[in-house]
Write a structure and sequence with these properties.
Chains A, B: Pfam families: TGT. Chains A, B: Pathway: tRNA modification; tRNA-queuosine biosynthesis. Chains A, B: Keywords: Glycosyltransferase, Metal-binding, Queuosine biosynthesis, Transferase, tRNA processing, Zinc. Chains A, B: It catalyses: 7-aminomethyl-7-carbaguanine + guanosine(34) in tRNA = 7-aminomethyl-7-carbaguanosine(34) in tRNA + guanine. Chains A, B: Belongs to the queuine tRNA-ribosyltransferase family. Two copies of one chain form a homodimer. By secondary structure, chain A is α/β, with parallel strands linked by helices. Chain A has two domains: 294 residues, TIM Barrel, CATH 3.20.20.105; 97 residues, no CATH class. The first copy, chain A, has 16 helices and 17 strands. Chain A has a nine-stranded parallel sheet. A three-stranded antiparallel sheet of chain A has the order 1-2-3. In chain A, strands 8-9-10 form a three-stranded antiparallel sheet. In chain A, strand 16 and strand 17 form a beta hairpin. In chain A, helix 11 packs parallel to helix 14 and helix 14 packs antiparallel against helix 15. The longest helix of chain A has 27 residues. The relative contact order of chain A is 0.12. Chains A and B meet through helix 13 and helix 14 of A and helix 13 and helix 14 of B.
């Protein structure tokens, strides 16, 4: 049985639907993967996330390494047992979090929180990046910790995820081409060490994805993608800096999937950390199989709810004063657990103002339901050869959930 | 149709089972009433609370008066519509909260946070207690507010609760007999004003309960109970100081229900703010029909879970270090949404340490499930003439849920 069983291809793009066959079950692709960063989908239970239509969640190697520690999770039966999620789990490698502490983010840079350039001066949290690995301070106890490619593999093996990701340096947007090139080469040496560790240690039921870096430089990104795709790792994730804006991000992803289509079309492709509505549509067109992103859960906890309104980036802010008297659900005819129970924008506005937990939960449920229906629409659209129409409808503000059935 | 339809009486105590017939449905008594203080059961949705077996929740007049304000709730269809709870709601009068700001609590006194005596020196929040009502500062905006008996009635009418409570001064334990006597007399004058307001204003579907004060003084408590029970208010709540310890509290409640049994046996009886496991058992024996208490939900949010262990006050603290490796549910064979899904003490310990919302929710669900099963046991025990045995079993540490069926 192939890792990815491709079932339909869109004639007008690289989009494809299929099934990822993993140790804990199947994932219908293209799929969005909600975050269970610290071993819980914040405010929800696993059965609720499964009921929304999700087949896989993402656990965070960095956070779980620091607390409760991978040994405790192993002792308690692995991450599936620990968090009571019996379907597939993908774990990131920890690279993104380790390096975020030192590099900062594009957002930091745009907001002036750090100067661009060559990240030779590390912030306090990163103590050193060496060929062997990275030394950093724990945000929990301030103690010095070390993570090497082998550490990341050991932790992910202890967690027992279905998909492990190779340990990489996630280069941010503001670094130079020269730094990106050197870093990407080191990421490739780290990938070899991850593959070697994974081959030498029993990790039943776990597959390893490589990660394509190379920044926003076309030759580097294409070469890096070809390089990692040609290793024995059976899946590929696209990571690192994808650009300063959406057109550049789509272009960078297109370089990567263009290379993947040439050298390893059968390997499943994960796009790391991307999940805005328009990004999911474009990502599917570019041939991405799985996506993870904090957006729907994180914005939900801050009172932002997803609605089919492209002009407002598909979101409304329930905390705004103009919501106070709005006696309507977040979305009309929405089947999510919040809207279908009749909770109104006015009530949610009040709950957010009163710092009531139920508000965070209801909007998180709504947002994840919205994305789940969008992904179901996109899968159905590819299967029925209507992706162009469905994608156009989503971009024009169609509500998710009815598109696929209308197109079918 | 009688407000309270008594169905069974225990031959050995004042315990009784029945049905409270309210505008939004029936409440099986004796019943525990979970708190929906600010119009939400913290972290849960109404459908979940109903699924646990609860027929009624308690909304807080004081908090909802300050935010979002009763006029907004009325505009949005009343409290049932606003919070999407379609079964009965009881609202307290606001008296307890208004006076708590000035009097402090027994707990404050025991912990030395304020001196006992005559509360002539008010804390900053209460600006004045007068015959007309109480002036106080809003904890939300610092603005001066006024609540009179008529205000409380107006707010509760706007909220549209099934049961409104009369506005009273909730006298604390540390005040003198003289203060208690004067205060109780004023509370009776306020009750007359509440009854008058309620008779003069249309409040369809809402019944008014009087409140018995009188502190811990037998003659005052008995007289106050007789007085309020003989008004036209069709139900009676027992409030105010119930003593310094459980024996005294049970004695004070017994004076009240003894009087009620003599002068108004048909009127339903609510015991305000009491809900420990042993208190519920004793309260049922003393003839209480409904109880409300913050305990199960509040302690749940702080990591305390209810277990059938009288020696530990029926609770375990999941935040303690000794829980770190305990790969077992809160309770064996517990049908609650947390235990039945297999979440372990070790996992919940970790989640509380990581400040994850799901932890608060799961333990709240467990605790409310525990209390719901206990109350079902007690109802079944009264109905089958086995209350003495069931009460003894609960006090000896029997798990709730199996008792009633075993006794039947």
């Amino acid at each position: 049985m192939a890792l990815l069983d491709v079932q339909h291809r869109d004639p007008g793009s690289l989009a494809r639907t299929g099934v990822l066959n993993l140790a804990h079950g199947q994932v219908r692709t293209p799929a969005f993967v909600p975050l269970a960063t610290k071993g819980t989908i914040k405010g929800l239970e696993p059965r609720e996330v499964a009921a929304l239509g999700y087949d896989m969640v993402l656990g965070n190697t960095f956070h779980l390494f620091l607390a409760p520690g991978e040994e405790l999770v192993r002792e308690l039966g692995g991450l599936h047992e620990f968090m009571r999620w019996q379907a597939p789990i993908i774990t990131d490698s920890g690279g993104f979090q380790v390096f975020s502490m030192g590099h900062g983010t594009v957002a930091d840079e745009i907001k002036g929180r750090r100067a661009p350039g060559n990240p030779t001066e590390r912030s306090g949290a990163i103590l050193g990046i060496e060929e062997e690995g990275v030394r950093f301070r724990s945000y929990i106890d301030g103690g010095e910790r070390f993570m090497a490619p082998e550490t990341s593999m050991e932790v992910q093996a202890a967690l027992g995820s279905d998909i492990a990701l190779a340990f990489d340096e996630c280069t941010p947007f503001h670094v130079t081409r020269e730094y990106t090139e050197r870093s990407t080469e080191r990421t490739h040496r780290w990938l070899d060490r991850c593959i070697a560790w994974h081959e030498q240690h029993p990790t039943p039921g776990q597959v390893l994805y490589s990660i394509s870096q190379g920044g926003v430089y076309e030759d580097l990104r294409r070469a890096a993608t070809r390089h990692v795709a040609q290793t024995t790792a059976p899946g590929v994730a696209i990571g690192g800096s994808l650009g300063a804006d959406k057109p550049q991000m789509y272009e960078v992803v297109s370089w990567a999937t263009d290379e993947l289509e040439k050298v390893a079309p059968e390997k499943p492709r994960h796009l790391l950390g991307i999940g805005e509505i328009d990004d999911l549509v474009r990502g599917v067109e570019l041939g991405i199989d799985t996506f993870d992103c904090a957006m729907p859960t994180r914005i939900g906890r801050h009172g932002m709810a997803l609605v089919p309104d492209p002009a407002r980036r598909w979101r409304i802010d329930l905390t705004k004063g103009r919501m106070k008297h709005v006696n309507e659900p977040i979305m009309d005819d929405c089947p999510c657990p919040a809207c279908s129970e009749g909770f109104t924008r006015a009530y949610l506005h009040y709950l957010f103002g009163a710092h009531e937990l139920t508000a965070l939960r209801l909007v998180t449920l709504h947002n994840l339901s919205f994305i789940a229906r969008l992904m179901a629409d996109l899968r159905a659209a590819v299967a029925t050869g209507t992706l162009a129409e469905v994608a156009a409808a989503v971009r024009a503000g169609a509500a998710p959930g009815a598109l696929a059935s209308a197109a079918a």
